[in-house]
Specification:
heterodimer; A: alpha/beta; 6-stranded mixed β-sheet; 24% strand; B: alpha/beta; 23% strand
Chain lengths: 271, 304
C-alpha cells in the first residue's frame, strides 16, 4: 500500500454515562487501501458499528470521539465543518445500514429517493436524475422501468440492491456496509455480495464490510480485523485469519461456527 | 422419515392458502411431516418459502384449508375445548426475537410462574417457587440472580434461555423453535443450540427447528425438510441431504452457504443470475410425485 484511502489512527470513542464512561472503541488503528474490501468482525457490543458511524461522523451523543484521526486521502474527517461534512457524506463515504431494506422511505417512489440524493449533491434536474437512476438500477440488475414503483413493491433483496445503487450513485470512494445482508437468506446474500464485488472491481471503490459471519467475511474480504471489547485484537489477510488465527479470541470465534461439512465443531465450546 | 417410535405429531398433506383467486397465495401445499419424541426435524428454506406458515399450522394459529394434523394418533379437533387446551399445553413455541417475546413490565419469575399456575394446577405456594428455580437451573441460569430481574436486564441469549424454560414449565412435548438463534450473537448461539440438544435428549422432546441457516440445522437435527414456494422439495436424513443434495433448489441453497474455503473471485463460487432464476422457476412448479433417492432421502419430482 502506498497511500491508504482511509486511515484510522488511534481512534478512541466513549459513550458518556452519568457516572462512568463506557469505552466502546479503544485506540483502534487500521488502513483501507483503494479498491480493497476490509472486514471488521466481532460480536455485538464490540464497537464495530460505532466505528462505522464515526467514519462519516454520524455517531450521536452520548458517543464522543476522545482522540484519534480518521483520514480520508490524508484529510481528517474530524476537522470538517458542517458544510464540508454535508458534501463529504455520501459523496466520499456512503453507508449501507443494517436492515437497509427498511431504510427506504415507504411513501416515496424509488425514483424520488434517487432524485433527492442527485439534486442535493450534483444539482441534477429531474430528467438527468432519471437517466442516472436508470443507469444505477441496471447496475444492480433491476429493470429501470420499475423506478416509479414504491419500496413495498420490491422484495427484500431487491430493496437492498436499490439501497446499494443509491449509495453508488455519487461514485463514493468508500462504501461502509454494516451487516448489509444479515436479514436476507443465503442465496440472495450471495447474489448481492457477488454484485458488490464485481462493481468494486469495475468502479474501483473500497468497502468497509462489517458482519459477525466470519465464514462469509473470509470469502469476500481482502483483509480482516477482529474486534473484542473495543480493541482491534488481530488484523491480517483473510486467508491468514482463516488458516492460522493468532489471537485466542479469533480461534474461539471460529470454533463457535457450526460447519456444513466435516465434524460438527468442537463440542467443548459449550457456553 | 423413518424412526423407530410412533410420531407424536403428524401433518398429513396440509395446505394453507391466503387471499382469494386473483391474488391467491399458496403458502403451504400438501405439506406432510412427522415429529418424533427425542428427535429434531429441521425446516429450512428462504424467506417466503412457507416455513413460518408451517410453524403456525403446527401451533394451530392457522386452520389448514386441506389436510389434517394428527396428534398422538388422533386427528386434532377444533370443537373440543379441553382437547385443544391439552394440545396447546403440549405444543409450545420459541420465538425468533428474544427481545420482544417477554413482557418488559414483569420479572423473569413472573414469566415462569404464570404458565405453572395455569397448566400445573397441582402445584401450590412454595412448590411453584421451587419449580421456577428448578427450571432456571435446568437452562443454566442462576435462579437467585435471574428470577427477580426484568427482561431488559438480561442478554439476548439469557432471554432465549428463559423462553426455553417457559416452554418446559408447562410440560411441553413438542417445541417449535422459529429461528431461535438468528438474533443472537455468534458466541452465544452454540450455547443455546447445545441446550436444545440436551433437552431433546433428556426430556424426549420432539423439536421442529425452523431456520435458514443449514449449518446450524446440521448441528441440532437428525432429519431435514427443505421448502421452497410452499412445497417440500427435498427431505430425509440430514447428513444424506447435505452431503448428497439432489433437488436443484437444495443444491442452490447449499452452494450459497458461506464457505471460507472458496473465495468470491473463484469462478466456481459464481452464481449466475439466470441459473438462479431458472432453478427458482422450476422449483416453484407444483408436483405431487416424489422420488426415492436412498432409504430415507426423498426429493419432489422437478417440474418442467
Amino acid at each position: 500500500m502506498t497511500q491508504p484511502l482511509l486511515s484510522i489512527k488511534n481512534l478512541t470513542i466513549d459513550y458518556i454515562g452519568e457516572k462512568t464512561d463506557f469505552r466502546a472503541v479503544d485506540n483502534v488503528s487500521f488502513d483501507v487501501a483503494a479498491g480493497e474490501i476490509f472486514g471488521l468482525a466481532g460480536e455485538s457490543g464490540c464497537g464495530k458499528s460505532t466505528i462505522a458511524f464515526a467514519i462519516s461522523r454520524l455517531h450521536k451523543p452520548p458517543a464522543l470521539i476522545r482522540s484519534g484521526q480518521i483520514l480520508l486521502e490524508g484529510r481528517d474527517v474530524l476537522d470538517l465543518d458542517m458544510q464540508a461534512l454535508r458534501s463529504f457524506r455520501w459523496r466520499e463515504v456512503a453507508m449501507v445500514f443494517q436492515s437497509a431494506m427498511n431504510s427506504l422511505n415507504p411513501v416515496l417512489r424509488v425514483e424520488a429517493q434517487f432524485y433527492d440524493v442527485l439534486r442535493t449533491h450534483q444539482g441534477m434536474n429531474r430528467k438527468q436524475a432519471r437517466e442516472r437512476t436508470a443507469e444505477m438500477l441496471r447496475l444492480v440488475d433491476i429493470q429501470p422501468d420499475r423506478m416509479s414503483d414504491y419500496p413495498h413493491q420490491f422484495s427484500g433483496g431487491m430493496r437492498q440492491r436499490i439501497v446499494i445503487a443509491i449509495c453508488l450513485a455519487l461514485n463514493p470512494k468508500i462504501v461502509v456496509m454494516d451487516e448489509p445482508t444479515t436479514a436476507l437468506d443465503v442465496v440472495v446474500q450471495r447474489e448481492i455480495l457477488q454484485r458488490v464485488n464485481e462493481l468494486r472491481k469495475r468502479l474501483g471503490f473500497s468497502v468497509l464490510f462489517i458482519t459477525h459471519d466470519l465464514g462469509l467475511m473470509v470469502q469476500v474480504c481482502d483483509r480482516i480485523g477482529i474486534m473484542l471489547e473495543g480493541k482491534l485484537v488481530e488484523q491480517n489477510t483473510a486467508q491468514e485469519i482463516y488458516a492460522s488465527p493468532q489471537h485466542d479470541y479469533t480461534k474461539k470465534l471460529w470454533a463457535s461456527f457450526p460447519s456444513l461439512h466435516g465434524s460438527k465443531t468442537a463440542e467443548a465450546f459449550a457456553s | 422419515m423413518s424412526a423407530g417410535s410412533e410420531p407424536i405429531l403428524k401433518l398429513d398433506r396440509v395446505s394453507k392458502t391466503f387471499g382469494s383467486v386473483p391474488y391467491l397465495v399458496k403458502a403451504a401445499q400438501a405439506v406432510s411431516f412427522e415429529l418424533h419424541p427425542g428427535r429434531t426435524l429441521a425446516l429450512v428454506g428462504e424467506s417466503g418459502s412457507g416455513k413460518t406458515t408451517c410453524a403456525r399450522l403446527v401451533m394451530r394459529e392457522y386452520e389448514p384449508n386441506e389436510g389434517e394434523l394428527i396428534f398422538k394418533g388422533k386427528p386434532v379437533q377444533t370443537g373440543n375445548t379441553k382437547a385443544l387446551a391439552d394440545y396447546r399445553r403440549s405444543v409450545q413455541m420459541i420465538f425468533q426475537d428474544p427481545f420482544s417475546s417477554l413482557n418488559p413490565a414483569h420479572t423473569i419469575a413472573y414469566h415462569l410462574r404464570r404458565p405453572l399456575q395455569l397448566h400445573r394446577r397441582d402445584l401450590k405456594g412454595k412448590d411453584i417457587d421451587a419449580t421456577v428455580n428448578e427450571l432456571l437451573e435446568r437452562v443454566k441460569l442462576d435462579p437467585a440472580l435471574v428470577a427477580p430481574k426484568h427482561p431488559h436486564e438480561l442478554s439476548g441469549g439469557q432471554r432465549q434461555r428463559v423462553n426455553i424454560a417457559r416452554t418446559l414449565a408447562v410440560g411441553a412435548e413438542v417445541i417449535v423453535a422459529d429461528e431461535p438463534t438468528s438474533m443472537l450473537d455468534v458466541s452465544v448461539r452454540l450455547g443455546v443450540l447445545n441446550l436444545l440438544n440436551e433437552m431433546k435428549r433428556d426430556l424426549k422432546l420432539a423439536l421442529l427447528y425452523i431456520t435458514h441457516d443449514i449449518a446450524t440445522a446440521r448441528y441440532v437435527a437428525e432429519d431435514i425438510i427443505v421448502m421452497y414456494a410452499g412445497q417440500i422439495v427435498e427431505w430425509g436424513n440430514i447428513n444424506k441431504v447435505i452431503d448428497n443434495p439432489q433437488h436443484p433448489y437444495t443444491k442452490l441453497l447449499l452452494s450459497a452457504v458461506p464457505d471460507p474455503e472458496i473465495r468470491f473471485d473463484d469462478p466456481k463460487a459464481h452464481l449466475q443470475t439466470s441459473d438462479v432464476d431458472e432453478v427458482r422457476r422450476i422449483s416453484a412448479v407444483p408436483d405431487t410425485r416424489s422420488i426415492c433417492i436412498d432409504t430415507d432421502h426423498f426429493i419432489r419430482q422437478v417440474g418442467a
